[in-house]
Amino acid sequence: MKLATLRQGGRDGQLAIVSRDLSHCELVPDIAPTLQAALDSWDRVSPKLAERAASLDSGNPPGDLMPFDPVKCMAPLPRAYHWVDGSAYVNHVELVRKARKAEMPESFWTDPLVYQGGSDDLLGARDEVPFGDEAWGIDLEAEIAVIVDDVAMGTNALDAGEHIKLLALVNDWSLRNLIPGELAKGFGFYQSKPSTSFSPVAVTPDELSTAWRDSKVHLPLVNRINGELFGQPDAGTDMTFNFAQLIAHVTKTRRLRAGAIVGSGTVSNYDRSRGASCLAEKRMLEQIESGTARTQFLKFGDRVTIEMFDAEGRSVFGAIDNRVVRS
Amino acid sequence: MKLATLRQGGRDGQLAIVSRDLSHCELVPDIAPTLQAALDSWDRVSPKLAERAASLDSGNPPGDLMPFDPVKCMAPLPRAYHWVDGSAYVNHVELVRKARKAEMPESFWTDPLVYQGGSDDLLGARDEVPFGDEAWGIDLEAEIAVIVDDVAMGTNALDAGEHIKLLALVNDWSLRNLIPGELAKGFGFYQSKPSTSFSPVAVTPDELSTAWRDSKVHLPLVNRINGELFGQPDAGTDMTFNFAQLIAHVTKTRRLRAGAIVGSGTVSNYDRSRGASCLAEKRMLEQIESGTARTQFLKFGDRVTIEMFDAEGRSVFGAIDNRVVRS
Predict the structure, then answer these.
(1) The pTM of the whole model exceeds 0.80
(2) Is the dihedral of CA B280, B284, B285, B289 positive or negative?
(3) Chain B positions in Cβ-Cβ contact with residue A258 (cut-off 8 Å)
(4) Does residue B45 contact residue B293 with C-beta atoms inside 8 Å?
(5) Does B183 touch chain A (CB under 8 A)?
(6) Tell me, what's the ipTM?
(7) A120 to chain B, minimum CA–CA distance in Å?
(8) pLDDT digits (tens, 9 = 90+) for B95-132
């Protein structure tokens, strides 16, 4: 099933079920007022949501249908209690290092890299995204994220997969020119990773059919800048750590509570013909090839679109389609 | 006023007003079910809470009083949407560097250091705190945190102070032996900063009277290990960045939403007679003085107590009093 959060009610919006073809939706206040409320009691609530979704997709639903409009969507979780983003496409990390002529430690192939993101202000798929200064080096990062239920401390990768309840697309906006100074301080990202955008809907893994296997999404993640195709790397290829392994890593010293979001990091393929999921990667390739990065970062007014299509060409999550604006 | 969250109802507990002397409390479901709900509408809700608190402290309250028992407390926000911790006592950072014979950049005196913490699982003042392995190097970090309402992107330090609605004490548990490997990877803390403990109550700034000035708390923060005094540095001394400056730093590229928690980092004084707020600092001093750190990290069964007393010797926040246990 597909779930969205409509911008009405309070800060957490209202939970809606969305038809598989993304044409219609239905509020479900009688089942759960918000997506977080549904996740808090997922085992009890999700069968009811699934039943309603089946009815919605049957073409003969009993409830009040509305046309589904992504403009009315907040992020599926407009605010979440935990947002940890991995860097599972190690090929991307290797490239970052290569561009600055640094060796990548061998351990990066076996020990996942993650960072903790801010989650009190997650952005909707059609929101304007405000930045203070173009000189900060505004960049997209097209990713996939999973949303889990309660996961115990010390959960291993074999057991972690069953905690994945929903998936969504993510634009993990990055401020490239703030990163070097911030990482040099040694405490990781903060100012350089502002609020993150999410797809209009989050979906249960079964919506991906056989494209969801080995805790990976085996479909291209398509991103466009101002309507022009920029990259479509396959999310199932070159993903060194799958989502189950990422969850096992993050629960080594803590438990995760229902609604925690775990991201894949920028999707990246060795096959350069697939393009990239961020401008930084294109710039690094230019740097390595010619000594100069020619591609510019984003400007105010630019539009960034991220979408994923199934084998039949149907949009799975709807499109992230944000415009970069001056704050 | 003093506010607590009692362990009843759902994952967010139930909001209670606590008497100034910490002897009694009263649930206030008619005003706000949870602390997050109160913070979501603070301007509207807080006058009602203040009125009820005044009545509670008058000795002649109208409602149903209960004895206040910190054992029944969850963290004031058992889960929060944002937890960012500063390192405002730069003296402490300087010492960390000195112990490993590294220079501290001059910019550390003018550009705050912060890290993003996990906030889906904040621990209560009397909870057992589980860790997988003593070899991880279990340490306390006694701190102060503020809780804000909505803060706009680009808020400057002059305006930031008015957004501070509540204060609490924090034990920002740290796993010292996981830190070097994690920081070497370049993305900051994650596994090395597990769930954080909070004091039984959060208080409005006026509860601190004149000890709250310049966006700092001018009182000693007392910590004990297994009942023995370990440190009582003054939180108002040697705090290079006050809370308003920390908030200005963290809102440079993002807004903060109501209920975001901003921490001070380990309280630390140049005056070594005040002791330390973490074992690491004592170990660094030993390392610098004698070449060897003799003090051991915490063991399973150890108790860590953190408390702050006003000028009349009354506990302001109640005591954090956690036992370290094997997970």
Answers:
(1) yes
(2) positive
(3) 11
(4) no
(5) yes
(6) 0.97
(7) 5
(8) 888 877 888 888 999 999 999 999 999 999 999 999 99
